[in-house]
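Anyone up for a design puzzle?
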């Protein structure tokens, strides 16, 4: 099962990957653009791993990891970065295009999370992850290209250090929520303690 909230056995290993997101994103000095670009590079790496893997279990874990990371990334952009961009730069076209692209990606993420094991094994997972990869590649290019949102943000008077700190804080909260959910469901499903408790103590600053 691909959905991280179903308590299937892959949830525990996927939270291990998720913990990596938290630890690698916890460098305090990243400005908003560095942080968001870091998210982009990380998920691109996972897409590449997915495409080169022929291990069905690993692919399911990667799909969960990718979906969780992209959900958090889209949330922090929509809650914090995009509104700040719109307020400072006033470019409604870029803003609305980015939101539309997120909505498209969220539909595919939802479809991945709804897959049952037979569908995933039958090639549907590959097809959907490939579709998601193409959408995200396009979205990343739009954000990072000259005269794209990141370029315009860097040339504006946005306080990218301060916004970076807000993004970082919110990202940690959302990652923690994702992992708590997965850990809780895993504990309910197996009677085992969720391993993520340890990771949280190691990687997540006190809140
Ligand atoms: Fe993005």
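Challenge accepted. My sequence:
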């Amino acid at each position: 099962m691909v959905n991280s909230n179903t308590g299937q056995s892959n949830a525990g290993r996927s939270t291990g990957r998720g913990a990596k997101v938290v630890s690698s994103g916890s460098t305090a000095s990243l400005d908003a653009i560095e942080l968001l670009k870091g998210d982009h590079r990380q998920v691109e790496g996972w897409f590449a791993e997915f495409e080169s893997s022929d291990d069905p279990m690993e692919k399911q874990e990667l799909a969960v990891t990718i979906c969780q990371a992209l959900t958090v990334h889209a949330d922090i952009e929509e809650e914090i970065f995009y509104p700040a961009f719109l307020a400072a730069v006033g470019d409604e076209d870029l803003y609305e295009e980015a939101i539309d692209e997120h909505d498209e990606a969220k539909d595919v993420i939802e479809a991945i999370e709804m897959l049952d094991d037979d569908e995933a094994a039958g090639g549907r997972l590959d097809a959907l992850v490939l579709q998601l990869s193409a959408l995200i590649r396009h979205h990343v290019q739009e954000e990072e290209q000259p005269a794209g949102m990141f370029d315009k943000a860097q040339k504006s008077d946005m306080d990218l250090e301060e916004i970076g700190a807000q993004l970082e804080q919110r990202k940690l909260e959302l990652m923690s929520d994702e992992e708590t959910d997965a850990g809780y469901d895993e504990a309910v499903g197996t009677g085992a303690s969720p391993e993520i408790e340890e990771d949280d103590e190691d990687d997540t600053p006190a809140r």
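A detail worth pointing out: DSSP finds eight helices and no strands in the chain.
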